[in-house]
Amino acid sequence: MLAAERDRAAGILEPGALDEAVTRSREAFARLLGVPADRVACGPQVSYFTGLVAASLPAAPRSSSPTATSPRCCSRSPPART
Question: For the chain, how many structural domains are there in total?
């Protein structure tokens, strides 16, 4: 990988040179999760996949996650003193 990073920095990296490393990474992550490697996606950044997942969800009137305006999100109790 160090050689690939040097080539990338020099502007001479061949994209296919990373195929083996990507394959090994997907296989290793799949083993951690206990799933087949072909179920592990690999892409340029998390936001790409976040958008892909969000676009595939059915339209809903509300978000199921807390927001900055949600009292539950912003009001936290101080830690208990012992």
Answer: 1
Chain centroid to CA 72: how far?
Answer: 26
* Block residue for tokens 């958008």: 51
The pTM of the full predicted model, rounded to 2 decimals, is 0.54
DSSP string, 27-66: HHHHHHHTS-GGGS---S-HHHHHHHHHHHSPP-SS-SS-
Read off the tokens for 42. Answer: 């690999």
**Each residue of 32-42: pLDDT tens digit?**
999 999 999 88
Query: Considering the domain boundaries, does residue 79 fall inside one?
Result: no
Output the six-digit token pair for 50: 């976040």
The encoded tokens of residue 73 equal 């999100």
